Amino acid sequence: MAHAKAVDAPSSHGPVKTGTGGNPWLVLLAVSLGVIMVMLDGTVVGIANPSIQADLKASLSDLQWVTSGYLLALAVFLITAGKLGDLFGHKRVFLIGVAGFAISSVGIGLSAELADIIPGLSPVGALIALRVLQGLFGALLQPAALALLRGAFPGEKLNQAMGAWGAIIGLSSAAGPIVGGLLVENASWETVFFINAPVGLAALVLGTILIKDNRAQTLARIDWLGVLLLSGAMFSLVWTIIKAPEWGWGDSTTLTFAALFAVLIGGFIFWQSRASQPLVPLSLFKNASISIGTVLMMMVAFAMFGAMFFLGFFFQGVHGLSPLEAGLRMLPMSAGMIVASPLAGMAIGRLGPKITMATGLLITAFSMFLMSQLSIDASFIESGIPFLLLAFGMSPVFVGATEIIVGNAPINLTGVAGGVQQSAMQVGGALGTAILGAVMAGEISDKLPGYLGPAAQAIPPAQLTGLEKAAAFGTVPPGVPQQIGDAVHNAFMDGMHVAFLVSTGIAVLTAVLTLFVKAGRKTEGAPVHVG
Asked: Where are the bilayer-spanning segments (predicted)?
């Protein structure tokens, strides 16, 4: 799926020297190769998850961290990464991001081998740690890429470049499920990550040759204490939500981590009010539209990423499709983004963000509701229609968020506002994966005994727990009777339906929120947000 990108405007920290001489379209090619890695990675992981679970014996919480750890690393580090580009040069930061992303991707594919070398490290633990590292390098890469584009293209050609940039992102996102399905089906899940190595190498070579640097004249300091406090708070929150179903919501460990989150987020807010150059200036949120827009982005990502987490397991585990067939099922959404994004931009230009986004969110809610009605043997048309609707529902939100959040920010904070917008999206996605995973696990635990019927009384508690864990992935342990297999699949479907119904309600609530925001100014050089 296409992730919207936002980036610091170099002008947010002072005048900018631009020196990306030569053909700017070759600069576009170089930076696009770097971002293609990130887009492919974002859409292929969902296809690879069932194979990762089966190969590494990963639990549901493990796979939630494979997604959430990556998103949180992106969320916390995006704003800092933009400032690092100002300090050390966007070309240097971009190339470090590309190299680090490619190397960590190869490391993910070698998780099992790394676990054999490093004592006490499990393959799943290595994978999660490297996904976090991948997210950090992805955060370096993304803001720098758009900053370099802004320096390469003159003002009158920048919109044309952004259109091409959006098409490249859309095409790579659409290709992701197909590429992932082909690799998983004909090779292994590891190759999904190995493919980043040649793409990253090409981006490094072209970037080194074609890109000249640009950086701000007025250098910003990094609020490392703010980064540390926010990272700790977000980790504590997501860890609490993911582990609470296992520990118990009233367990002392759950309450301890919840309290730690409260202390750290309180410390972060206090420090941001005192720091000379805070990570997130609290003055931004005095504007109601920015505050509401940030919450809106979190809720949208919560609904979309949280619910979509389970679709790979539905298609491959319950429906019995191959990885390639599962990738084809997801194609209408990714391909639809290519058409929907420019149409959304035109609609916002004519109608404004309020009406356009509210309409898009109602379409999103209808799409989520249709997904909550999917049957075990849903056809391509039955799953494809809600996917296509989702593309046309989400695109106005992704495109309109720039005008609401960035357009209402003070001129000197437009870059930071763009970072806040993108960070809110990543945090929302991580929370959605964690919370809807907990909701689904609870629903499965509640419904599975009923589907098993009298047979549940004869199943030992340990075996029943094992069936609940299998049901979370839509898989049936080998050798079990068909009646038990049907019960596992039915329990998974109930859990997935509840997750999509929760997402439906959130989308409707978010549509109401859009009615309380106002359009922002259109400022040349403001952060560009494309889907």
From this structure: 25-48, 63-81, 93-112, 124-149, 161-180, 192-211, 223-242, 254-271, 292-315, 327-348, 355-376, 388-411, 423-442, 498-517
- DSSP letters, 165-203, are HHHHHHHHHHHHHHHHHHHHHHT-THHHHHTHHHHHHHH
Q: Are 302 and 427 in contact (CB under 8 A)?
A: no
- DSSP bridge pairs for 216: 16
Ordered alpha helix ranges (H), 57-118: 60-88, 90-109, 111-117
CB 4 within 8 A of CB 162: no
User: The whole model's pTM is what?
Assistant: 0.79
Work out the angle at residue 432's Cα, subtended by the Cα atoms of residues 431 and 434, and round it to the nearest 5 degrees: 65
CA distance 286 to 411: 15
C-alpha–C-alpha distance, residues 46 and 212, integer Å: 36
Backbone torsions φ then ψ of 375, nearest 5 degrees = -95, 170
pLDDT in tens, 397-417: 877 776 788 778 776 676 677
- Each residue of 227-243: b (16+ CB within 10 Å) or e? bbbbbbbbbbbbbbbbb
Closest CA to 78 of 494, 417, 516: 417
Contact 195, 183 (CB under 8 A): yes
Distance from C-alpha of 395 to C-alpha of 342, rounded to nearest angstrom:
9
The pLDDT tens digits for 20-78 are 445 888 888 888 888 888 877 777 788 888 899 889 988 888 888 888 888 888 888 88
Distance, CA of 3 to CA of 38 (rounded, Å): 9
Taking the mean position of all CA atoms in its chain, how far away is CA 315? 20
> Which tokens go with 114?
């790394």
Distances (CA, A) of 443 to 160, 214, 447, 467, 495: 48, 52, 6, 14, 5
